[in-house]
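Service request form, structural biology core

Requester: graduate student, group of Dr. S.
Request type: structure prediction, single chain
Budget code: on file
Notes: please return the result as structure tokens.

Sequence provided:
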Amino acid sequence: MADRTDWTIKGRELANCNCNYGCPCQFNALPSNGSCHAVVGFTIEEGRHGSVRLDGLNAVAIYQWPQAVHLGNGTMKLIIDQRADAQQRAALEKILTGEDTDDMATMWWVFSKMSPNKLATEFAPIDIDCDVDKRMGRITVAGLVDTSAEPIRNPVTGA
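Core staff response, request fulfilled:
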């Protein structure tokens, strides 16, 4: 890919969708409810896009597909940490839309290609709390996103 900027991200991700747990889309099945609505949040511990540092920033992607992801016609909206400066904002938009990624190399490239309807990126405060050891997390962006995750409970014992 010509004129591609090298980048790297190390951090935590929290993703939720409207399907039954186990996300059938990840196992070659159709969405539980016929359509897919997903939120994915990222806390970047270490990252760069070329010489632009991305350490400590957050980003969120909201996706909606009227059917299965692979059938396309989806809508996506990016939310980038308001603390990001202009270079960091541009870098994160390129990464999260798959622009600086080889074809099929990342989920961002795939989700972007399956989402021809792109809403304007917003820059807002993003609160992401992700405790990997406890398998719990929450993403909050005022007026746009409020989602949480926790371990699946046993329906009989509640454990």
